[in-house]
From TrEMBL:
InterPro entries xref list: DUF2237
Descriptive protein name: DUF2237 domain-containing protein
Pfam families from the UniProt entry: DUF2237
Species this chain originates from: Pseudaquabacterium pictum
């Protein structure tokens, strides 16, 4: 499936997650994925302080800027395509950030039950 034809978890066309900060495996604003995306950056989340701190404590520093990776660091409220298993880990720890269903790639359900994503949905869709 081409990036243009990618679907979200609701079965409709995937919509952008964030252009500021610029997110996505391809840094195209969308949670597109491919076989090289071993982290499966497919869940569009609005990150929280609790999530950022939990990830930092687990060795996944999403706060510190890394210009060499075109990454300016995240702050609470930013939307970001997070790794599905990292989001699942946070969910199980009770600190999963809210999810934008329209912008979450359908592949997310390979890792996380759709019910969990709906439970944490930012919008009333789905």
């Amino acid at each position: 499936m081409s990036r243009d034809a990618a679907l979200n978890v609701l079965g409709t066309p995937l919509v952008p997650c964030s252009y500021d900060p610029l997110t996505g495996w391809y840094r195209d604003g969308c949670c597109h994925t491919d076989a090289q995306d071993h982290g499966s950056h497919v869940i569009c989340a609005r990150v929280t302080v609790a999530f950022l701190n939990q990830q930092f404590e687990r060795g996944n520093d999403l706060i510190t800027p890394r210009p060499d990776y075109r990454f300016k660091g995240l702050k609470a409220g930013d939307r970001w395509c997070v790794c599905a298993l990292r989001w699942k880990e946070a969910y199980l720890a009770g600190c999963a950030p809210p999810v934008v269903l329209d912008s979450t790639h359908a592949r997310a359900t390979d890792f996380v039950p759709l019910d969990w994503l709906r439970e944490k949905a930012l919008d009333a869709v789905g």
